[in-house]
Design goal:
The complex is a heterodimer of chains A (357) and B (631). Chain A has 357 residues and is α/β, with parallel strands linked by helices. Helices cover 29% and strands 18% of the residues of chain A. In chain A, helix 2 packs across helix 7 and helix 6 packs antiparallel against helix 10. The longest helix of chain A has 16 residues. By secondary structure, chain B is of the alpha/beta class. Chain B folds into 4 domains: 230 residues, Pyruvate-ferredoxin Oxidoreductase, domain 3, CATH 3.40.920.10; 187 residues, Rossmann fold; 70 residues, no CATH class; 108 residues, Rossmann fold, CATH 3.40.50. In chain B, helix 4 crosses helix 6. Chain B is globular. The chains are: A alpha/beta (357), B alpha/beta (631). At the A-B interface, strand 1, strand 2, helix 3, helix 5 and helix 11 of A face helix 1, strand 9, helix 9, helix 11 and helix 13 of B. Strand 12 of chain A pairs antiparallel with strand 9 of chain B, so a sheet runs across the interface.
Chain lengths: 357, 631
């Protein structure tokens, strides 16, 4: 089980600390996508960084603002649409995928984004999530995973680790967590990726790719809840440990981490870590990541459940297949071509009829 | 051969003219009774009789053969007179096995006729039906009040199909066609519709088409030649008003009404649905209308079905879903969301017997209070009901009109009886249907701090409906949600006064639907001793009862409510013209509570909770008792 780095001090809200050089234009563009509503997340919440990244990203996507719709469920993350100056809907708990499906299926011209959390998507809305992915509705689904129920003030969530002490589990949670990556791979998602709130560069890169993907793009975003679950992902996001505790997946490249000093290789169906500098090993033994391999994605996704392995980030899986709305439109077009455009009067009379004078 | 002229009737047969007849086909759920009934219905429609049907089948798809709980029935009432119910009493029962006889004997009138498949009355079947000790066909007293015709249906079917090369199972399953042919002969119905239907159904398997048509004719000829039947009946055409007619099932009419609303409004129909009895047929029908731009979405559950409809409606489509009682419960939270966001959707509830899974294939009217109040918070909605199978078309159309005009979810209540039942339906021309006034918001609607802005909750002064702004419209970007809205801006608001104001405003909006309700029609006396107030599928049986009550010297009128919320504005003045009130419902008394609450008058409830529609006689009796108590 990963442990928190010792003596980690509360940090400034992302974006307010010492910043790395970013594209200067992005700050100006962010305004266009910022609504007039006050952002009400707790100071220091990881959601701020994600919101800022998305607001900066949107103008770069080549989509008209009026064609963008953000749909959410319930939870802290689901306040997201209020802060985006686009069309949006803050719906009910767990049901955002259903609304997004109806919207996108009937309006394929729109650019639809679903924002959800670990409780919203994996607990109350679990059924909708898997069916959305199976259908491959062309949209982006961002799951802000903070491994806790924040808005209801700190109960364990479906991604909380076993033993987690929370308000509703004072003696430790006894339920094993979902691994969202393995789960969505199992649900036939055509695009599965993971990123984190504190690495806005990687976050932006992954979201951009998710947007390019035609089909349901599932992005798990590790998000820090500094009130109820502070530091849950610090192993993977803080400078002291990040290099040793994470591995970034890149298609066609070897799985290396710890600044290229260690690699991941396959022993049968199991992954293991090896030292590149060791006597018996060479860099060639590392897995060359293949994001088109569902099998490999499955194996690599399971590293998340092993404390001895670095946590994988990046695009796990990407597959090109027809979207739900494409197939729907195609079927309608084909039948309309065959039968002709429907005529209401003809339909009303389409039965055995008789006339009374 | 296609049109067997009446002159071929053997000279020994006399012909008797009847005003109305009720026939009940009953057998195992695998005997094809629904099919036999619907084909007899079609032939009857062709004979231009008025008619009403009551399919009555078990929830099990193929219940164990020969059991009483596996009996499937199809009752049909037809006549040269106005027919509004499937008939209180059965004139002819066709019983394919002992269980079918056992279950339905009580519905046959004294002196009525029973055709039994005598080959099925074997020890094992008799035992399954609970006749192990006394075979009713051999027991002198058991059927003495009825005219029983023992017909060797199974044996004659086997003989007739020799040489067709069908296996035993296929032969056995065909015997309903023999029964159909015989019954068609008995009531002088044409064979042609059933023959055409068989040719079409088995177009890819001509040997089956040929065998079934052969059998149908054999049944017909048997009636002609056998000495058992000395009388044959005729029922003259009914005086239906001029027009072109078709037979229509309620569920089919619902589907057509939705397509018509889509076509007339220019909005694409998006239908979200999860399979549930008895609403699934709506999905089956609509999924065939792809060339009308209809998108049907079979969702993962009831909640997803309505969620998708809401999403489609947000996108500017006609979002519709249909379900039955348990599904309406699951949709409750989403319905509240649509009420809060003030988006138009139509939710059709084809009610069945409850609670819980209850009686999935039986009819009931017990979801009225759920439709009215079954949501958290104060979330009133327009609630409409469908009166007859044909009326389902207009009810669905009107529900769409109300949803769009008032920007609100609308619940339309049908039930198993009205959805599965059928009647002759005068086909309207699309030009007869009212038009839709669809105006999507296209520009900003307020000036705030010198800036033109779009406020999503600025309202129409008459209807209080808010504007419908489709995503894709530049400058109108806005956010909707389930949190309480600030008046006009639609921003999230926790302000106490605003919450009360908005709650009242939403209720007022629904109340204002009343100004569009047409004047209430009273059937029977316009004033007098008793007003019977009904809603939904009790329409036909109440009117039949009112006709009968006139013979009892009572001044009785009836109104059938299309709108239960809001109630028609003229209902109060109508009530004032009567001395007593009777409210028949297939529930424990739901409308009656709403009426008592609203009018504080002494309404008498008449309730039936048996999964079966009322008989006219039950309402007549209650009306007479009620009047005696008053006087």
């Amino acid at each position: 089980m990963p442990t928190l780095p010792p003596s980690r001090k509360p940090t400034l809200p992302p974006g307010r600390g010492p910043r790395r050089a970013g594209p200067p234009k992005a700050r100006i563009n962010r305004k266009e996508y910022t609504s007039d509503q006050d952002v009400r997340w707790c100071p220091g919440c990881g959601d701020y960084a994600i919101l800022a990244s998305v607001q900066r990203l949107m103008p770069q996507l080549g989509v008209k603002r009026e064609n963008v719709v953000f749909v959410s469920g319930i939870g802290c993350s689901s306040r997201f649409p209020y802060y985006m100056n686009t069309y949006g809907m803050h719906s009910i708990h767990g049901r955002a995928p259903t609304i997004a499906t109806g919207l996108k299926a009937s309006r394929p011209d729109l650019d639809v984004w679903v924002v959800t959390g670990d409780g919203d998507a994996l607990s109350i809305g679990g059924n909708h999530l898997i069916h959305l992915l199976r259908r491959n509705v062309n949209l982006q689904l961002l799951l802000f995973n903070n491994q806790i129920y924040g808005l209801t003030k700190g109960q364990y969530s479906p991604t909380s680790e076993i033993g987690k002490v929370t308000k509703s589990s004072p003696f430790g949670s006894i339920t094993p967590p979902f691994n969202p990556i393995s789960l969505t791979l199992g649900a036939s998602a055509s695009f599965v990726a993971r990123t984190a709130d504190r690495d806005t560069k990687h976050l932006t890169k992954v979201l951009k790719r998710a947007h390019t993907h035609s089909g349901s793009a599932f992005v798990e975003v590790y998000q820090n809840c500094n009130i109820y679950n502070d530091g849950a992902f610090f192993d993977f996001t803080e400078r002291a440990t990040k290099a040793d505790r994470t591995v970034y997946l890149e298609h066609g490249k070897p799985m290396l981490f710890a600044n290229g000093k260690r690699g991941i290789r396959l022993d049968g169906f199991r992954t293991s870590v090896f030292d590149i500098e060791g006597r018996d090993a060479s860099v060639n033994e590392a897995i060359i990541y293949d994001e088109t391999s569902l099998e490999l994605a499955g194996i690599v996704s399971r590293m998340s459940q092993r404390p001895d392995m670095p946590r994988p980030f990046g695009v796990f899986f990407c597959e090109k297949r027809p979207t739900y709305e494409e197939l729907l439109q195609e079927q309608i077009a084909a039948i309309t071509e065959k039968q002709g455009q429907g005529d209401l009067d003809a339909l009303l009379y389409a039965a055995d009829t008789w006339t009374i004078q | 051969m296609e049109n067997l002229p009446l002159s071929t009737v053997a000279a020994t047969k006399s012909v008797e003219l009847l005003d109305e007849v009720t026939v009940l086909f009953a057998g195992d759920s695998g005997d094809g009774m629904q099919l036999t009934g619907s084909q007899f219905t079609l032939a009857t429609a062709f004979a231009q009789n008025d008619l009403a049907t009551l399919p009555d089948f078990p929830a099990e798809i193929r219940a164990p053969a020969g059991t009483t709980y596996g009996v499937s029935g199809y009752q049909l009432h037809f006549g040269s007179v106005n027919v509004r119910t499937p008939g209180d009493e059965v004139d002819l029962l066709v019983a394919m096995n002992p269980a079918a006889l056992k279950v339905n004997l009580g519905r046959v009138r004294r002196g009525g006729a029973i055709i039994v498949n005598v080959n099925a009355f074997k020890p094992h079947s008799l035992k399954l039906a609970g006749y192990e000790k006394n075979n009713p066909l051999e027991d002198e007293g058991a059927l003495k009040d009825y005219r029983v015709f023992e017909v060797e249906l199974s044996r004659m079917t086997e003989e007739a199909l020799k040489g067709f090369g069908l296996d035993k199972k296929a032969v056995d399953r065909s015997k309903n066609m023999f029964a159909l042919g015989l019954t068609l002969w008995l009531y002088s119905r044409p064979l042609k519709p059933a023959m055409e239907w068989l040719s079409e159904k088995f177009a890819k398997r001509p040997e089956l088409a040929e065998a079934n048509i052969h059998l149908l004719k054999k049944g017909y000829h048997f009636g002609e030649t056998t000495e058992d039947f000395v009388v044959r009946y005729e029922v003259a055409p009914a005086p239906l008003s001029p027009g072109t007619y078709r037979a229509i099932r309620g569920v089919e009419a619902l589907a057509l009404g939705l397509v018509a609303a889509s076509s007339k409004s220019g909005l694409d129909l998006f239908y979200g649905s999860y399979p549930i009895t008895p609403a699934s047929d709506l999905l089956h029908h609509l999924s065939r209308y792809k060339n009308f731009g209809v998108k049907t979405f079979q969702a993962e559950d009831e909640i997803a079905a309505i969620g998708a409809a809401i999403g489609a409606s947000f996108g500017g489509n006609l979002g519709v879903c249909a379900t039955s009682g348990p599904g309406l419960t699951l949709k409750a939270e989403s319905t509240g969301l649509a009420a809060m966001m003030e988006l138009p959707i139509v939710i059709i509830d084809v009610q069945r017997g409850g609670p819980s899974t209850g009686l999935p294939t039986k009819t009931e009217q017990s979801d009225l209070l759920q439709a009215m109040y079954g949501r958290n918070g104060e979330a009133p909605l327009p609630v409409l009901s469908a009166a007859t199978p044909g009326d389902c078309f207009y009810a669905a159309y009107e529900a769409c009109e109300v949803a769009i005009r008032h920007m609100t979810p609308v619940i339309l209540l049908a039930d198993g009886y009205v959805a599965n039942g059928s009647e002759p339906w005068r086909i309207p021309s699309s030009s007869e249907l009212g038009g839709f006034d669809i105006s999507f918001a296209g520009k900003t609607n307020r000036k705030v701090d010198g800036k033109d802005v779009f406020l999503p909750y600025v309202r129409d002064p008459d209807t209080l409906a808010r504007p419908w702004a489709k995503p894709g419209t530049p400058g109108l970007e806005h956010r909707l949600g389930g949190l309480e809205k600030q008046h006009e801006t639609g921003d999230v608001s926790y302000d106490p006064e605003n919450h009360e104001f908005m709650t009242n405003l939403r209720a007022d909006k629904v109340e204002r639907v009343a100004q569009f309700i047409k004047p209430t029609e009273i059937y029977g006396h316009e004033e007098g001793d008793l007003l019977i107030v009904g809603w939904g599928s009790t329409d036909g049986v109440i009117k039949t009862a009112v006709d009968q009550l006139h013979n009892h010297g009572l001044k009785v009128g009836t109104v059938q409510l299309r709108y239960i919320n809001p109630l028609p504005p003229d209902l109060g003045s109508i009530l004032g013209r009567f001395d007593g009130y009777l409210v028949p419902e297939l529930n424990k008394g739901q409308l009656v509570r709403i009426l008592r609450d609203r009018f504080l008058l002494p309404f008498t409830a008449l309730n039936k909770i048996q999964g079966q529609p009322f008989k006219a006689s039950e309402i007549v009796e209650a009306a007479i008792n009620n009047s005696e108590e008053i006087s």
